[in-house]
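#structure-requests
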Amino acid sequence: MNPKVEAYLIELLERYPLLEPLKEELVLSYDLLKTCFESGHKLLIGGNGGSSADAEHIVGELMKGFEKLREIPVNFSKELIKTESKRGRFLSRNLQGGLPAICLSSHTSFNTAFSNDVEVLAGYAQQVYVYGTKGDVFLGISTSGNAENVVCAAVTARTKGMPVIALTGNDGGDLKEYADVALIVPETGAYRTQELHLPIYHALCLMLEETFFSEADA
């Protein structure tokens, strides 16, 4: 692991010593996500309530600059300007590099239609079935590990050959049974668990940003 990437992991464990037992799982999660993005694939994320907000938060950190500017490649800037001079220059100044991630709770029209017409607990699984391809990663967030719609999405992802990362608490619940990597924080109760989820996904997003968007690109 690049020393600059590893520095974020070290900082996380120094600030949150409770997470030290998860060091191996954190490295494995990073490796799965790195491989996913290197191969041109995407991350699908599902959660409910506060975990849905966490899923949105992760997408925000991956799809645009987090701590780095992430300027787009010079060649693409030139192509934008060739396509349309004025707007191309505007876009070349404002577009940023990103890593493709989709929050499954964000699609209000689909989610309400599917829950009304079919079955609410299969809504995330439906999106994984349609969006997901082998090589994508599914990140399921559930403080208890027993959110049935998230577990169903994990089952669907495994069936499609997608690695599954679980971000959870308590004993990991049913979700851990379908996860390639289970990040089970040593807490119980939703808010205590979520308080440890945030620094974990921030660290992973920082590690990925360092990997794919070097200082030379910033």
